[in-house]
Specification:
It is a single chain. The protein is an alpha/beta fold and about 325 residues long. Helix content is about 35%, strand content about 25%. The chain has 3 helices and 19 strands.
Length: about 325
């Protein structure tokens, strides 16, 4: 005859022992880590909230470091400008001295030698003032990708972009995707031949003119590029309000600004990588004088102005006026 023996007391004791060991392990983890929630088993919803807050905290800490980097860059540029200002003041003193009729020709020649030396040093400081290998006073700051992140995530932000000349109102927003433009007129670079035209635009002598003729107050365009460099320009006529999506449009203009939005209002949205470079002397890559330019979207924009011989700033701004 089979007989089963069960020790109920021992089983109960073992169950309590396991439970106490589990609770003790959980308590030790909390004490050693300092956190009430160490895994989703402790508190599933609390763990999700804690992970989200940790992610935001790490993003904020990185944003603080980014801000400190930006501050250091500005301080570096300010130090260079301070030295240039002292030299300009000295040049002014020498010019005033040379204008004195009591100054002889030989003395004026000596004064001119010092002025030439100060001018050379100003140019040298402009070339040497760099932050992380980026020239700050050489006139090419517009080539920065404008991605100094100040937030803990991709929330859009606004900041001013440095320019060396008279600049229009400029806003930079950064977002994960370019908001769509309703009823946008699609223009492909492959279709741009001399004499081509459409509603609100025409292409003549290498210039895509956004005229707005025959369209309502707000006109929208999507310009699709091929990713290859072409010697063309985009000009938004004075007084026009336009929304433009640039998609891999690379323009290297020898005749003027690659993108001219002077005295107009433009909402520019970036998709992919676009390039706006002017090789014309003193012209900006994106010329904004008297206008209002807003830039946003997930893409990038490289803008560079043309070199100008003898200019103390090296030439046109990447984005700005002339």
């Amino acid at each position: 005859m089979m007989e089963m023996r069960t020790n109920i007391v021992a089983i109960t004791t073992n169950r309590h022992l396991v439970n106490h060991a589990t609770q003790m392990g959980r308590g030790i983890r909390r004490v050693s880590s300092g956190f009430r929630i160490n895994s989703a088993a402790d508190d599933a919803s609390g763990a999700a909230i804690a992970n989200m807050m940790r992610s935001q905290l790490r993003g904020i800490n990185q944003a603080i470091r980014n801000t400190q980097d930006a501050t250091s860059m500005i301080q570096t540029a300010d130090a260079g400008l301070h030295q240039i200002n002292d030299m300009v003041q000295r040049i002014r003193e020498l010019v005033v001295t040379a204008a004195n009729d009591s100054t002889t020709i030989e003395q004026r020649e000596m004064l001119q030698i010092e002025i030439n030396q100060l001018t050379d040093e100003i140019n040298a400081i402009s070339d040497r003032t760099q932050y992380n290998s980026t020239g700050l006073l050489s006139g090419n700051t517009g080539r920065l990708s404008n991605n100094l992140r100040m937030g803990d995530n991709f929330t859009p932000f606004t900041r001013s972009l440095p320019s060396f000349y008279n600049t229009a109102s400029l806003h930079i927003f950064q977002s994960q995707q370019a908001p769509p433009l309703p009823n946008a007129i699609v223009i492909s670079q492959l279709d741009l031949v001399d004499g081509a035209s459409g509603t609100g635009w025409n292409f003549t002598d290498g210039v895509l003119n956004i005229t707005g003729i025959g369209l309502p107050d707000q006109i929208n365009f999507q310009i699709r590029g091929t990713g290859t460099e072409t010697d063309n320009r985009i000009v938004v006529n004075e007084g026009v309000t336009a929304g433009i999506i640039l998609e891999n449009v690379n323009l290297v203009s020898s005749q003027g600004p690659a993108l001219d939005v002077r005295n107009s209002t433009v909402d520019l949205r970036l998709v992919g990588r676009s390039v706006m470079i002017s090789n014309a002397s003193g012209a900006a890559g994106v010329q904004t004088t008297g206008g209002d330019l807003t830039i946003h979207g997930p893409g990038s924009l490289e803008a560079r102005g043309g070199y100008e011989e003898g200019s103390p700033l090296g030439g046109g701004a990447g984005i700005g006026g002339a």
